[in-house]
Predict the structure.
Amino acid sequence: MSDEFDDYEDLFGDGLFGDEADEPEDAVEGSGQAAARLPGGSGYLIVDGPGAGSITGSGAGPDIREAAPLPGRDEALDGTLPLFLVHRGCHHWRALPRLLAQLHAAVGANLALGVASSLPAATEQSHADFNSSCSAAAVRLVDPQGYLTDPQDVRVKEPSGRSKRWAPYLGGASVTAGELLNLQRDRGANLLLTSGRDLDPSDAQRSLDAACAEGDDALAVLKQEERLALNLTVSAAWLTRPVLREALLAQLVDQEQFDTWYVRVQWPGSVRAYAQPTGTELLAGYRQLADVAADEERRLLLPQTPGSPAG
C-alpha cells in the first residue's frame, strides 16, 4: 500500500484504518450546497454539500445564512474567545472541514476554532491538503509529538516504520530547531510548536531547563509574523504532586518569552480509553495550571482535556 493512498494512520501499526479509504471526500447526504455569508464581502463559507469547509466568492443554493467574521490566528489566541481545538484522528477526518464550517456558522461570534494533527501520522501532502481545507480553523497545529522518542511515562508502543519515515526524529535522526519548524510549516501549521518532549519527574529542573532551552532555539529561528507555543508533555504526577507542580508552574511563569503553552498531560493508567479522569487531585492540578495561565495572561492550550468528577 503506497504512502499516497490514504495516508493517515495509526502511529503504532503499519496497517491503515480502512473505513476512510472508500469514503468520498465530500460524503454528505444529497447533492445540495449550503453556505454562510461572511461579513464585509469576504465570501461565502460552504457549510454543507460539495466543497464543504471552503470559502467561495458566491453562494449557491436556497440555504444562505449569515455568519460571523472568521477570526485570524492572533485574534483566536488573544484570550477574547474560547478556542476549541478539534483533533484529526484516524477515522472520519475528511468530515472535519465541514464540521468546523458548521460550528462557525452556528456559534462563530462566541468561539474560535482550531485543528491539531499528529505530524508522524501522515504524509506532508496529506497534512498540507487537510489544513488548507479547514478554512474555518483560525489555528492550525501539526504536533511533532516528541514524547514518542522517550515514552517513559507514556503508554505507547513503538512507532511504525511509516511514522518514522514521515517524522525521522522518531527513528533517532537529529533535527535542529529550524528543521523541526520547517516540518510543521510545510504541513500547513500556523502556530508552531517545540518538540513536545516528555518531562522527566526524576530530574525535574534539568528536564524543564532543557525544554525551555529548546524553545529559545526555536524562537531564534522564527520568521516574521510567526508564533510559537512551548509544547510540553507531562505525566499526571506533574499536576498531582505539589513539588513537581510548583516546579512546573514556576518555570512557566519565569519564562516570559513564551506567551502560549501547549501542555499534554498523560493520564493515569487507571483511566480507560475514551474515558475522562475524575481524580480530584489531577483535576485540581489542571485548575491551578489554568488559573496561573490566566493570571499571567498566557494562552493555555490543552490537547487533552479532563472531565468533571462524578457526582
The chain is about 30% helix and 15% strand. Residues 1-6, 14-31 have pLDDT under 50 and may be disordered.
